[in-house]
Each structure stands twice: as structure tokens, then as C-alpha cells.
Amino acid sequence: MTTPIHLSSTRLLRRVSAVMLLLCAFAVTGFAQSNGNGKKYVATKEIIFDQASKTLRKPTQAETDAMVAEIGTLTNRSTDGLTTKTLANGGIKMDLQDRFQGVVLGRANADGTTEVRCVMTLEEAIDFLGLQEVQ
């Protein structure tokens, strides 16, 4: 089920563009780090448009690892290690350290279009991107 996104079209375009650039950067650098859940995933769907061959391809293992790591960090819902500060007006401020975010993802389709979805959890992202846990 897709939830409508209530952002101005300019703001939405900026977010989608930022995520697409992030995914492209992963493709170029092969950036990878721990995804925080200790699981390994492999791609099962062709979701990346290869500029050189003009065809869709599956993400490489390095690209998959990088996407899972970054999305896992952004969608982290753990409060472990977060601190609060009481403000003068009685309010409480908490630095979320880049956690608790929604992530706008895009995947290429065979017809040249891009499908976009906002996900709130790593599990939603894994489903949308067509990843499968390695047993």
C-alpha cells in the first residue's frame, strides 16, 4: 500500500533527486557499511538503468550493501544512546542523530519510467527494492 506524500512538488522533487543521486553515488563508489541488523541481502530484481548498455540490471552486491546500510541508518527506530535536554519553556529536545526518517526511493522500470515510494522502515525498502535475505 502506498501512502500519499504531502509535500510541495518542488520539495518532493528535491528529495527524490537527492535519493536518486545517493543511489548513483553508491553505484560509483561501492560504499558499504554495516546495516545494523547483521543480515546480508542480494538483489532479485533489475532496478538500475545502466547508461552504458541502455538496459536494466540488478544492483551489484556492493551497491546492494550500500543501499541497505544507508537506508538502515536513516530508518533506524532505536532510541538507544539518544539524549534529551529540558528547555527553558519546559519542552524536551532530543537529537535523533539522523534516525526516524522516511526515505524516498526510486527504481527504474523496463519502460523507462521510475517508480518512487516513500518508506519508513528497512523492511519496506527491502520489499520495494526486491532484495532477499541471504540465509
What does this structure look like?
By secondary structure, the chain is an alpha+beta fold. The chain has one domain (9-78, 95-133). The chain is built from 3 helices and 8 strands, in the order αβββαββββαβ. It has helices at residues 9-29, 61-74, 122-129; strands at residues 41-43, 48-50, 55-57, 84-86, 92-94, 103-108, 114-119, 131-133. A two-stranded antiparallel sheet has the order 1-8. A two-stranded antiparallel sheet has the order 2-3. It has a two-stranded antiparallel ribbon with strand order 4-5.
In short:
The chain has 135 residues and is an alpha+beta fold. The chain has one domain (9-78, 95-133). The chain has helices spanning 9-29, 61-74, 122-129, and strands at 41-43, 48-50, 55-57, 84-86, 92-94, 103-108, 114-119, 131-133.
Instruction: Report the strand count.
Output: 8
CA radius of gyration is 17 Å
Count of all domains: 1
Distance between the first and last residues' Cα: 27 Å
Largest sheet: 2 strands, antiparallel
- Biggest sheet, strands in spatial order? 1-8
Poorly predicted residue ranges: 1-7, 21-34
Rough outline: elongated
Number of helices: 3
What portion of residues is helical? 25-40%
Taken as a percent bin, the fraction of beta residues is: 15-25%
In round numbers, the mean pLDDT is: 81
What structural class do the secondary elements suggest?
alpha+beta
Q: Name the helix and strand elements from N-terminus to C-terminus, one letter apiece.
A: HEEEHEEEEHE
Give the arrangement of secondary structure elements.
Elements: H1 9-29, E1 41-43, E2 48-50, E3 55-57, H2 61-74, E4 84-86, E5 92-94, E6 103-108, E7 114-119, H3 122-129, E8 131-133
Antiparallel strand pairs: 1-8, 2-3, 4-5, 6-7
